[in-house]
């Protein structure tokens, strides 16, 4: 079964970040029959993420969350915009993932903010982050300002982005767990 | 089974008084801890090696040589020796020298070191960490076993007709453990040579190390050094004891909360649940330590971290008294049900005997 991890770092209740993440996930689900959607609300593991940064290892709860994300076939990542960038909590969650764990994974990026003036956060902050992680970011990112929730255009962008993610997912081999780091000793010692 | 202490040698302010020991006080405290370890019946004292503040032990063989002169029985070890940034030639010489002075009471735990700038300070690059550990140890292994060495590698100048002196005591090189927190390559390296694998699991959950140690055991068997359950495993541990459990928690909490490695993160209770840390009565320490065998199989060496985070020397020495009281119980309990074919950790005398019998595969 194809699995989609939906990571959203909204802080409020209700949260427009959560709303956008849900809309993106539903639009993708409509295009990919039988999709298993795993929702990660980063706020729920905020302390675990901070502890992981301090100690270097994840709590059992956070490990389960991380595994659900890195083991998924695709990721939708949505953050609120804070000071012209992704939120610190969102970035901290990304920072506790192994650097190679999103390599090659289709990712749809989304962000929310108070005004339209922050919309380039997608291309100035989120896209380079996931490019560094060697994820495959779909061409359309979706930014939703407060005003977008009462205007035309957002549903079209959501559908376009979800369509691009679904296209990437179609025909891909399922994500497999890689056993990192094992090299037989004769290769480690090669040439000596 | 061997029991002992390992020290990082951090100079940390005591959070309850704000007082920071001088370097001289800390270095002398490390020696006092080593002497106390022998006095209370422990088997091993291991010092860290660091080349940056707030740590003092940059010169392990100087310290261990001094401790050797003042002890009779104690095995002197390292936790860890930086196989990446030290010249393997110097390691071969220094520890062979120490072996002679200490009548063979020497072994080493190799580690890579995880402080980025230390690599360039010693002319290396942290991105070569694994490769340095593999190449340098291959040379060290050879220097201790072949009288005249011709050698060429990527990370130091070649050697032609080089003899490392002094030769290892009785031609028996010190036993080596390889320490790693997350690299299967190092477990593979330990297995390949039939060396020990030391998992300092004090800051991490056991599940992670179960995978790593399981892998080492499997590969140890693969390389023909014995069955998986006969591989040589060492573990870290971290305890703070008082007769009364609540007293231990109350006294240790400020040290935990401000500790350099994990302070200001998870609570003492969370950390105790997730890692080997035990803060409580001697019986609680016994109970938790005995669970290590259930998680990792019968093993050979248990080292405890007793003296970090600004704990005053007086407190640490009291802790060692308590550790000395529980170790006989731990020895007895670990021996129960231990298969007869599980070896002890190799020592100089056991390796000398094995060499005489011609069965030394290491």
Question: What distinguishing features does this structure have?
Answer:
heterodimer, A: 192 residues, alpha/beta, 7-stranded mixed β-sheet, 7 helices, 7 strands, 40% helix, 19% strand, B: 362 residues, 10-stranded parallel β-sheet, two-stranded antiparallel ribbon, 43% helix, globular
| Portion of residues within helices of chain A | 40-55%
- The end-to-end distance of chain B, rounded to whole angstroms, is 20 Å
Number of strands of chain B: 12
Give a count of the beta strands of chain A, DSSP E runs of length 2 or more: 7
Q: Can you put this structure into words, describing what you see?
A:
The complex is a heterodimer of chains A (192) and B (362). Chain A has helices at 16-31, 46-55, 60-70, 88-95, 121-132, 154-169, 185-188; strands spanning 3-8, 36-41, 74-82, 85-86, 106-113, 136-137, 142-145. In chain A, helix 1 (16-31) packs across helix 6 (154-169) and helix 2 (46-55) packs across helix 4 (88-95). In chain A, a hairpin with a 2-residue loop joins strand 3 (74-82) and strand 4. With 192 residues, chain A is an alpha/beta fold. The longest helix of chain A has 16 residues, at 16-31. Chain B is an alpha/beta fold and 362 residues long. Helices cover 43% and strands 15% of the residues of chain B. Chain B has 12 helices and 12 strands. The A-B interface holds A 50-51, 53-57, 59-60, 180-185, 188-189, 192 and B 130, 134-135, 138, 153, 183-185, 188-189, 191-192, 203-205, 208, 215, 223, 261-266, 270-271, 274.
